[in-house]
Amino acid sequence: PSHVEEVKKLMAEFAEHHGSAGRRVVITSGGTKVPLESRTVRFLDNFSSGRRGASSAKYFLDSGYAVIFLHRHRSLYPYTRLYTGVNLLDSLQLVTGKEDAGQILVDQNALPNIAKVLKRYQAVKAAGLLLPVEFNTLSEYLHLLKAAAQALSSIGSKAMFYLAAAVSDFYIPAYEMPEHKIQSSNGPLQIMKMVPKMLSPLVKDWAPKAFVISFKLETDPSILLERAWRALETYNHQTVVANVLDTRRGYVVVVTKDTQQELVLTDEEVQKEVEIEDRIVSNLTEAHSEFMSRQV
Ligand code: 9Z3
């Protein structure tokens, strides 16, 4: 991607700025886009609103982690995600009196908890604890993930990778990609290749000491755990968080080689707007502590 060099610099600064003491997490979030033509009219997209990643970022920040937030352009973003349903202009009012001219009033009923959220957001920003990096395409995602892993390689086991982005399994290699819009008169499309799995080089080469968590998404619950185990066996990383599309907001299974733990929200918790990411993040930060203590 054209901005990869610039992003590498920011990531290196981010890694240095926080010294070797603190823990960092790279959160990936949102779906990747795979173009079908180099002058793209059509593309294949993976579903993800980005809520899992954006919400988790907040809980990691609350737990003292610094966060690289590698997310799909325009997917949900930490803190501001709480106001995505709000029309910003409807919640502002221009003061027209002579002395106050130019001032703007905020309707705090339209933006619930805005003062508290703004305070936290500004503190996180001022301390440089959140580095947002955007991707659109699968290829951008892969290059930027590699860059993040390399930037954090110096902090070893203090780095966590929380791979919640929905990543395409299929792509078209650049050398096979047509330049112009594919014509339907040429018949059905049979052009996709399998994406080489980036989890292998991430675990083996780019960040061999880091604590790595991947997410497994299925729509058929009966194959979920078997797929999670297979991923752990294939890639040899620490944890898979398994979820089913329809129930992902209230139920996940945290799977390791020797354990599997269900995290479930009760109806009462859902009503109180408890978020499952709160549970996932506290489970994983604890596991990360244990992982770090075993490395020394
Ligand atoms: C997930 O499973 C995430 O939990 C969701 C979150 C994408 C379901 P939302 O963003 O949804 O809150 O709307 N992410 C991983 C999906 C994925 O592509 N996993 C790959 C796979 O299942 C492995 S890396 O093969």
From TrEMBL:
Top enzyme class: ligase
One BP term from GO: coenzyme A biosynthetic process
Domain DNA/pantothenate metabolism flavoprotein C-terminal: 21-73, 151-275
InterPro entries in the record: CoaB-like_sf (IPR035929), DNA/pantothenate-metab_flavo_C (IPR007085)
EC number of this enzyme: 6.3.2.51
Catalytic activity: (R)-4'-phosphopantothenate + L-cysteine + CTP = N-[(R)-4-phosphopantothenoyl]-L-cysteine + CMP + diphosphate + H(+); (R)-4'-phosphopantothenate + L-cysteine + ATP = N-[(R)-4-phosphopantothenoyl]-L-cysteine + AMP + diphosphate + H(+)
GO molecular function terms noted in the UniProt entry: phosphopantothenate--cysteine ligase activity
Entry's family note: Belongs to the PPC synthetase family.
Protein's job: Catalyzes the second step in the biosynthesis of coenzyme A from vitamin B5, where cysteine is conjugated to 4'-phosphopantothenate to form 4-phosphopantothenoylcysteine. Has a preference for ATP over CTP as a cosubstrate.
Protein name: Phosphopantothenate--cysteine ligase
Organism field: Sinocyclocheilus anshuiensis
